[in-house]
What does this fold into?
Amino acid sequence: MATGTRERIVAAAMQLFWERGYGEAGIADVVARAGVRSGSLYHFFESKESLLVAVLEAYQSALIPHIFEPPFRREREPLERVFAVLADYRERLLTTDFRYRCPIGSLALEVGPVSERARVLIDANFAAWRGAIAAALREAALVPGTDPESLATFVLTVMEGGVMQSAAQRSAAPFDASIAHLRAYLMSLVAPAR
Amino acid sequence: MATGTRERIVAAAMQLFWERGYGEAGIADVVARAGVRSGSLYHFFESKESLLVAVLEAYQSALIPHIFEPPFRREREPLERVFAVLADYRERLLTTDFRYRCPIGSLALEVGPVSERARVLIDANFAAWRGAIAAALREAALVPGTDPESLATFVLTVMEGGVMQSAAQRSAAPFDASIAHLRAYLMSLVAPAR
DNA sequence: GTCTATAGGATGATAGAC
DNA sequence: GTCTATCATCCTATAGAC
It folds into this structure.
């Protein structure tokens, strides 16, 4: 096989499913961008849905190295690591002129209801995202009784809802407002120094 | 014209765009559900995108009477009105066996990037939703300096992110966790009695 | 593993009679 | 305004040579 044909197909599909959505992105677009023929695609994947599964697995593999390691390397304070992750999402909004959409969130709404295989992998992506945030929150000195898992769910909620509104408004304002309130809330949970 | 042909087409499109998404719902499905012929649809709408615009206008017209008036009638306390609205979304998750998606949020991610006409109307729907929440928040006795508009944005963020995660997980847990944190935060903003 | 070619079906939209 | 009929295009997926 030519080096990385499968990987090139998956990379092209990731890009196109993100840009146009799963339904609107055609197999013809994927093979064109990957520089392969449709015969090659159907050699590696039995259907478009199988390609979607591979895309979601690739997102999960990329989650820690691409989404979490860079901001975690920049910041050492646990709580600031959380906000550094969110700052990167803000940067994605800016660099796309507010056209950024969370690829997992978009697929969650588009294909979650119609493909159970995809839905399970989307849920796994969300769980892994929450897990990385929860790990940081466990390092933070929060008031006793705070549940890091539940709080990480809240952080993901705020990211998804903020990105969605900012894309709709073509403005950073909704994202920034949401993050500011999240920060105020998290700061209220910091255990008082003693 | 037969009574309400246009309205029946819009109602069918609302339902189908919500169930399957804009791209996956076909014109043939819409006319079948509306019980009309494609000639009628193209008499009222010049394209599928024009139908989408009509759907988004219909959502905005329905927003106050369908989403806000029932919960606001049940609750008189301003802050509890906000949570009553959110409780209705929780009910939608339950009654759909966690298949509920916010129709505006779904369309925001799917068509926001490709149809500017739709994006503007989606933004208007979000703004109207925030406006109704902000009005309730203005009635609540919150600590001075609290911005009801910014806080309403946060409430919408939490609803959208919570619904998305609960649908992906097929469980109320992420939504409930998100609302619980939102409640804790809002309660911390209640002005102390004096 | 990759290629060309195309099957088989669904799609959005149109034509023109009534 | 509504009807039937259909165009033209697009789509996913397959067949079979190399």
